[in-house]
């Protein structure tokens, strides 16, 4: 066939397979969202609609990709955690990464008008970049999740205080920055309380703790309990009957998806949802 | 700072840098566009609006990423070719790949209603996956481009004949497939001509040849001629003055972007636009 | 300096860092050892001297690289398992891989004459290739080790029977192969027992089970017990005092190195040597 | 078969294929050769036997791996350049890298006694690490070679002056270092000439320029001229008849291997040996 003369160029394609039996994590980040938030006049320090749009796009993704167990979002970023035993796209990195980024972007643009009916999009459009990171154990994955939630806390406390100084304290950005330079968390809390009568603890949990979205696979029926027992990762897995695979896939796709704004650093959250970190091996 | 306890998880991030002095090529592909084209009743064998939407999204991308020299699209795929000397995002693979995929997706969704005003989008949304391929020389890059255009030709001749048999020849899909199995190009041309009075040569060039989009940097002024001389790839490059870099960047951003539906396999197209494959070294 | 003009070529170097908190495994394989074993008239089916030379080279490597916890060898291959928390060469793949391959080769050549005093080496020389594989959990690593020992068993049973047929049964290679095609383990055992009065169980353990070499870190003193508690893998690790690191390094370097020819598939071996698979996280 | 239960661990193996149509370059480096040169009392600033041993090992490698076109060595390092069209081991990185490192090490140890008959090796043994770097064009490859030769020159001029100050000038190492800190090449030349009556130009070329080793494929017969025309890199290549491939392989294996100590920065060397950088594409 005429094509064959050029087909050798396919040999230049290189493909990375992600190490099996690890938690594949895709983190997407808004590109240039500082500018974007100015263009569309996002509320400061937090725009509830902008965060809810992020959550809506993340929820839509979890509906389309049942291999994602949970996701954590704050500000303009979201991390998606795949089930440790996922074989999605034979774990090809480019395919997984671009599917997640494209799906998120697609819903973000599509759903925009649901959250900002009065602010139509115009070029340059919102876009997201992304990266894959692998965590080989539940403890390192937990530490990753904790890292993002601590980041959320630190940034939000800073931003809340910064904007209080600017919006209610009559400072300009430079003065507020100067004031906050080197301050501890306790000092920021004190500024908020003493100068602005704000108790940081009363701020919305979505702002303080970000959003954890997870597939709620738990049910009381013993049948389904059995169904979500983690697959043993070995030869038997590949011989898991097609029926069983289909059944598992359906179970995941049908599980309800839950959003919470809660502490994911302590054990409690994870202890109560043991299926989230279950995996084939230790 | 409290964050430090978890920050070690950053050491699990791995980053691939794309080999310098090669043509970075990103090819994006529609995911499940067979189903999508049925859902939105795309015209067969080619839907002009769907192709124009692809071209519009590709053009918007080239405006946002001036390091892309040209792009080639057919059906639900597009290939973007970066200038050989591009240092975009320090050539980090994930960053380049996800930025291209996200930008394309974003404009595809945003511009959809310009081309399909009467067919509003609904979940599941259109999405694209993508991959990066490196070509180390202009001849291998040319062969890549030829490969895609030959692919366009083969698919389009097949589809044109297939749909003629179905739409005008009273066959169902299975019969048409059966009829075409093993036929040569000449036989398909003959079926079209003898049975349906169609001269394949008269089909639209966009269908037969796909779309090549390029940055039209050529001007007659000797000043700009000099400006787009390829940078020498060596130490001097990194010492290129900031002014020169800014000027080059502006020149690229301002160059008009042209779409053609023409042969890119023969030398003529490239010989007439020597700046497209120019690069620092041989 | 005059060098700077060319120094940009360093930017073409690409480096892969091996995922932290996984078991780095380097397996080396003799290149063309079939030919080599003919050239130097190795005894069939097993040449005790050749195996002991492999073990001697592996032992020398473990003395030079204290981050290796254990190694498993059979035939012309050896697998070296690094401690899960090893930071050797910042886990750069090329550096780890080539150091292991070069060190093994170097000792293999150097020690050759100790085992084959009457068979001096001549070109082409013995060489080894190698690869790195990562295992993210102790269970997958255990399965890797089991895989190699099962391989040893299968090959050795086959070879033992094959050479019995050839050396004592008057067959040529083709006939022996034909005879063994499709036979089960039990049938090979039977051939050995009925036709050649050989009880496979009585063969040397080194032939049947291969060689496991490990660092014998166990001591009864409570002090050292504490010393080899697995390091917690987080920020505190990097702050581990230099003294503690030096101490740990010395402890490893001084631990005696033990060779056994025993079952490593069942739990017993590992349960009795818990320090071998200890690691920072699960 | 019993093996199957564990065989899934093979899926954890990851393999990197080196980009086709680029110059694969493997640079090996002596590990800890500073200590080694002290242990075996290498002559300073250059030990002719040590360099000749490096060259002998490199020459042996080129005999075993006919895909290597040329190599450049200085001090305790050597760079091996594969033919641009080489398909050795399907261009698998680990296989190529470890084969080169192991082969070099093997010959270095084996040939040691030919050059140091009176200095028998003892543990720890000499070893080498290595890395692969790809160069996509002959100009970048030339710059790589120039980079190494400039490095040779700079180091050798420094070392020659340093050791003159120490051996003949009565300085200790610290004093000599202090004296040379910040000096230009011309000043070092002057020190050598004025204080030690040494004309640096009269030093041995092997010390000043390092060693270039290449396959001398040139012959006057028109037949062979044709034979080493670069293969066109496309589909036809893969259809190259087995006979032609065998012939090419034999031609390479039989070509004599030449060592020179000459300038490889200027064009002259390469212009006179056009087959060395010939490759399929530009």
Strand % of chain A is: 5-15%
Helix content of chain A: 40-55%
Order of helices and strands of chain A: EHHEEHEHHHHEHHHEH
Rg of Cα set of chain A: 22 Å
Low-confidence stretches of chain A: 219-239
Oligomer classification: homotetramer
Give the strand line-up of the largest sheet of chain A: 4-1-3-2-5-6
Return the structural class of chain A: alpha+beta
Largest sheet of chain A: 6 strands, antiparallel
Give the overall form of chain A: globular
Biggest interface reads: C-D, 56 and 55 residues
Query: How many beta-strand segments of chain A?
Result: 6
Mean pLDDT of chain A: 90
Description:
4 copies of one chain form a homotetramer. The first copy, chain A, has 282 residues and is α+β, with helices and mostly antiparallel strands. Chain A is 46% helix and 14% strand. Chain A is built from 11 helices and 6 strands. In chain A, helix 2 (48-64) crosses helix 3.
Characteristic key phrases:
homotetramer, 282 residues, alpha+beta, 6-stranded antiparallel sheet, 11 helices, 46% helix, tRNAHis_GuaTrfase_Thg1_sf (chains A, B, C, D), GTP-binding (chains A, B, C, D), tRNA guanylyltransferase activity (chains A, B, C, D)
């Amino acid at each position: 066939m005429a094509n064959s003369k050029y087909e050798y160029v396919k040999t230049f394609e290189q493909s990375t397979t992600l190490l099996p039996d690890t938690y594949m994590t895709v983190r997407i980040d808004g590109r240039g969202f500082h500018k974007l938030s100015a263009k569309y006049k996002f509320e400061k320090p937090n725009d509830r609609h902008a965060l809810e749009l992020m959550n809506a796009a993340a929820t839509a993704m979890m509906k389309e990709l049942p291999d994602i167990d949970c996701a954590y979002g704050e500000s303009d970023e979201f991390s998606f955690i795949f089930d440790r035993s996922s074989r999605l796209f034979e774990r090809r990195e480019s395919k997984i990464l671009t599917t997640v980024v494209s799906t998120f972007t697609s819903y973000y643009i599509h759903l925009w008008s649901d959250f900002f009916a009065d602010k139509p999009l115009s070029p340059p459009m919102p876009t997201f970049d992304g990266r894959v990171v692998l965590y080989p154990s539940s403890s390192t994955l937990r530490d990753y999740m904790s890292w993002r939630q601590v980041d959320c806390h630190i940034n939000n406390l800073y931003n809340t205080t910064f904007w209080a100084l600017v919006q209610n304290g009559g400072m300009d950005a430079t003065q507020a920055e100067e004031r906050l330079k080197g301050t501890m968390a306790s000092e920021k809390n004190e500024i908020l309380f003493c100068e602005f009568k704000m108790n940081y603890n009363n701020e919305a949990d979505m702002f303080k703790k970000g959003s954890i979205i997870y597939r709620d696979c738990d049910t009381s029926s013993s049948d389904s309990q059995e169904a979500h027992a983690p697959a043993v990762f070995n030869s038997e897995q590949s011989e898991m009957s097609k029926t069983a695979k289909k059944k598992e896939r359906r179970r995941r796709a049908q599980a309800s998806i839950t959003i919470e704004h809660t502490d994911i650093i302590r054990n409690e959250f994870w202890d109560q949802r043991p299926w989230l970190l279950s995996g084939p091996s230790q």
